[in-house]
Amino acid sequence: MTTTSRDSAFQTAPKATAHTTTSMRDPRLDFFRGIAMFIILLAHTPGNAWTSWIPARWGFSDATEMFVFCSGMASAIAFGRTFDRAGLGLGTARVGFRIWQVYWAHIGMFFAIATMLAAIDQTGAYDKVYIGTLNLWKVFADPGPQLVGLFTLTYVPNYFDILPMYMVVLALMPLVGALSRVSLWLSAGVVVVLWLAAQERLLAAVGLDGLHLNLPAEPWSDRQWFFNPFGWQLVFFTGFALMRGWIPAPPINKVLLIVAAVIVIANVPLSNIGVRAVSREWFGLAFETNPVIEWRVANKGLIDKSDFGILRYVHFLALAYLGYALAGHKGARLMAHGTSLAARIWDNILPLIMKVGQQSLAVFIFSMVLARVNGFVLDNIGRDAMTWTIVNLTGFGLLILCAYGAGWFKSQPWRARA
């Protein structure tokens, strides 16, 4: 990092290469955001065996880190130019407008899913109470306080907690940008301090548990937001800083590749897959309890998903570096064309994945609704290899259709014809 002057951090006519290069879409960003959207659909579909193969089962980090990191990079592209061109005030206004859009997307998604589940329950044809699958009992039993909590974000059910976290992180962006006008080290320091304030177990270990920073998740208990925005902003602003050029892109070399690969592989025995694979007898050694479970319990703060534990961050950075290396310079390997059958298939699949990544908010909202539909369908047709394949592949196709539909509406073709 370097220290910037008050005038140079948000200059109206940026000269730095790092800023001018962010004016174009990055194919790697669209690709990895698209992959994250497909994984999120799988992860939120109840009783889906395909989730055994998503990254979350094999390491500490998962598609959430990918989504938030890529959102930070996308925000650097979308909002960084506004800060550069129009200044801090109008840049903040644009961020506020985006928060407004995400807020109503969050509210709309909640009512769409809650209404759909209630409609299924109203038929009386099923033994399962579907509003109970998302713990929405109080919403229907006593809607008044819950509606107030929903609109004030003091009621955040677990299934509906990613977008509220994203809104708070977006709200921090003007602050981080304003501090960067003084010094990039100052803005980085605030990001790190906020992350430290979100680490409940770390604070408790040093007798400062009363300083834990989070937000209330429901009015009838002391439960807090599952995705603590003050912890998760660390990975968001890592992506933001990389895309803005505040952090230089890491070099591709064998040493870093080996280190990243070792970190990823070392995570596997301690992952969810590791918990299942390791029993009380391991490599000829007998244990009274599962040693992996004991390690995870003893070190929960390091891998905690709610507060974004440090080992999740390390694991994600290792995965991101490997993905960065595999994609090649500016995504050259992703975009490489060939004459083989596999290359031709890839050339047809890649634009679909990238389109999903380009319309990530619309696709995310749709996928959260679709995941509950898919769960309902599986409840009725059964769960086996064939039904999982049909439902998941159909879901992928619907995400792609949603992305193209959203892109078509955003292009406002009626204006072009007029």
Describe the structure concisely for a colleague.
The protein is mainly α and 418 residues long. The chain is 66% helix and 1% strand. It is built from 20 helices and two strands.
Overall description:
This protein has 418 residues and is an all-alpha fold. It is 66% helix and 1% strand. It has helices at residues 17-20, 27-44, 63-86, 88-122, 137-141, 143-152, 162-180, 184-197, 200-205, 229-244, 254-267, 272-277, 291-298, 300-303, 310-327, 332-335, 341-358, 360-381, 385-410, 413-417, and strands at 281-282, 285-286.
In DSSP terms (H or I, runs of 4 or more residues), the helix count works out at: 20
In helices, the fraction of residues equals 55-70%
Give, in spatial order, the strands making up the sheet with the most strands. 1-2
Shape: globular
What fraction of residues sit in β-strands? under 5%
The chain-level mean pLDDT equals 88
| Helix/strand order, N-terminal first | HHHHHHHHHHHHEEHHHHHHHH
Q: Measure the end-to-end span.
A: 49 Å
Structural class: mainly alpha
Radius of gyration: 22 Å
Strands, total number: 2
Largest sheet: 2 strands, antiparallel
Low-confidence stretches: 1-23
List its traits:
mainly alpha; 66% helix
Write the layout of secondary structure elements.
Layout: H1 17-20, H2 27-44, H3 63-86, H4 88-122, H5 137-141, H6 143-152, H7 162-180, H8 184-197, H9 200-205, H10 229-244, H11 254-267, H12 272-277, E1 281-282, E2 285-286, H13 291-298, H14 300-303, H15 310-327, H16 332-335, H17 341-358, H18 360-381, H19 385-410, H20 413-417
Antiparallel strand pairs: 1-2
